[in-house]
């Protein structure tokens, strides 16, 4: 996606000089970088961070800056690290909590992750979005991660995890704003009760697997034990062969191999490591509309 000048539809005068292009609008000069930043609809705090990252000479320095951001992230109380605050579709464990000042209608976030690089991304979003209104947060263009130059330093999995963090924060802010406007409470995602409600009758392991997959806030979730068809085979046993189907927004723009890696990360404790567990796992992972 190109971020800069578009050939047509100019506003005011447009000229080109050897040292760059600029536009004149309402008596001010807008450089290509200005146009790029303004199109991202960033909050002042987030814009300051993105501008700073863009100025660093290489990806190694940006990587170090992310680790510095991680060290500046405020603490998150253990009681806030619930399933409802867990970000789906992340290879690392990430929690995000939102609160609103009822007088100013501004949203404030807390967050944490068990991986330092991911924690740096959490810190960017928490510190960059806190103190903004739900509308300001909703307008933020996720492409700012590309404009900052950070995508070079991040794996595709972490990039997708970042998108899911921002989506959850936007959703939480919107729900708080609706509640403040008197439109009534609405869920910000999966609740602990949602996970408990999932059940495969007579299949405790399949039930536990389904509850673990609820972290992805699935639109559709199916868990089936097909071990019976493998009776007599090596490693066959009760609930050793499991088939799952998960349809979740967390999988949008995520390659199949990363979707499977997310699933294996969530279900690691259920897999057969030589002392029993799931020997065969068949997966059907889709984003809505696929």
From TrEMBL:
An annotated GO BP: iron-sulfur cluster assembly
Q: Which residues form the Fe-S metabolism associated domain?
A: 51-171
SUPFAM superfamilies for the chain? BolA-like (SSF82657), SufE/NifU (SSF82649)
Show the GO cellular component annotation of the record. chloroplast
A Pfam family that this protein carries is SufE
Q: Which domain of life is it from?
A: Eukaryota
InterPro entries the record matches = BolA (IPR002634), BolA-like_sf (IPR036065), Fe-S_metab-assoc_dom (IPR003808)
- Sorted alphabetically, which Gene3D superfamilies does this protein's record hold? 3.90.1010.10, BolA-like (3.30.300.90)
Q: Which PANTHER family match?
A: PTHR46230, SUFE-LIKE PROTEIN 1, CHLOROPLASTIC_MITOCHONDRIAL
The name this protein goes by in its record: Fe-S metabolism associated domain-containing protein
UniProt source species: Rhodosorus marinus
């Amino acid at each position: 996606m190109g971020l800069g000048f578009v050939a047509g539809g100019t506003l005011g005068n447009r000229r080109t000089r050897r040292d760059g292009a600029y536009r004149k609008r309402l008596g001010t000069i807008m450089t290509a970088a200005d146009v790029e930043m303004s199109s991202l609809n960033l909050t002042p705090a987030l814009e300051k961070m993105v501008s700073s990252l863009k100025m660093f000479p290489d990806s190694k320095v940006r990587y170090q800056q992310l680790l510095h951001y991680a060290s500046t992230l405020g603490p998150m109380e253990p009681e806030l690290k619930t399933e409802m605050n867990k970000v789906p579709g992340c290879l690392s464990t990430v929690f995000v909590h939102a609160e609103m000042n009822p007088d100013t209608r501004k949203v404030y976030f807390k967050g944490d992750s068990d991986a330092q690089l991911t924690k740096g991304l959490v810190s960017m979003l928490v510190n960059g979005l806190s103190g903004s209104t739900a509308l300001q947060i909703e307008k933020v263009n996720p492409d700012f991660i590309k404009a900052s130059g950070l995508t070079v330093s991040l794996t595709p999995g972490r990039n997708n995890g970042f998108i899911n963090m921002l989506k959850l924060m936007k959703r939480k802010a919107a729900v708080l704003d609706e509640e403040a406007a008197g439109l009534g409470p609405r869920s910000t995602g999966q609740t602990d009760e949602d996970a408990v409600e999932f059940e495969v009758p007579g299949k405790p392991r399949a039930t536990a697997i389904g509850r673990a997959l609820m972290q992805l806030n699935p639109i559709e979730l199916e868990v089936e034990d097909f071990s019976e068809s493998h009776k007599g085979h090596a490693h066959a046993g009760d609930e050793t062969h499991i088939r799952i189907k998960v349809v979740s927004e967390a999988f949008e723009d995520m390659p199949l191999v990363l979707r499977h890696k997310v699933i294996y990360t969530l279900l690691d404790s259920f897999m057969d490591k030589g002392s029993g567990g799931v020997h065969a796992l068949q997966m059907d992972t889709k984003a809505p509309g696929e």
